[in-house]
């Protein structure tokens, strides 16, 4: 469970065709950078504060992410790309 698959799902629905290549590359890059950071510092963090608190910290981050997705990520079901772009632009 985590937010790793979220960029893969979202980029096909949110980006226009003319920017989809750059947007997909950017989302992929950011996803792998964040995965690297978590993997690199997990053992240091668990040694510093313990394994239990480390997982609780990750759980808190996931809960914050759930609220972010629920309140800020637009629903795209049944909408055209133009409708999604209007919603993201605040129109």
From TrEMBL:
Location of the protein in the cell: Membrane
Stored SUPFAM superfamilies: MFS general substrate transporter (SSF103473)
Gene3D superfamilies according to UniProt: MFS general substrate transporter like domains
Keyword check for Transmembrane helix: yes
Membrane topology: Multi-pass membrane protein
Assigned GO CC terms: membrane
Domain (Major facilitator superfamily (MFS) profile): residue spans on this chain: 1-77
PANTHER family from the UniProt entry: GH17672P, PTHR48021
The name this protein goes by in its record: Major facilitator superfamily (MFS) profile domain-containing protein
Source organism per UniProt: Frieseomelitta varia
């Amino acid at each position: 469970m985590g937010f790793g698959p979220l960029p893969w799902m979202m980029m096909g629905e949110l980006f226009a065709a003319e920017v989809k290549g750059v947007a997909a590359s950017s989302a992929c890059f950011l996803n792998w950078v964040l995965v690297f950071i978590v993997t690199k510092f997990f053992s240091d963090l668990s040694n510093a504060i313990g394994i239990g608190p480390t997982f609780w910290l990750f759980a808190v981050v996931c809960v914050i992410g759930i609220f972010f997705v629920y309140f800020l990520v637009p629903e795209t079901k049944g909408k055209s790309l133009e409708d999604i772009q209007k919603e993201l632009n605040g129109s």
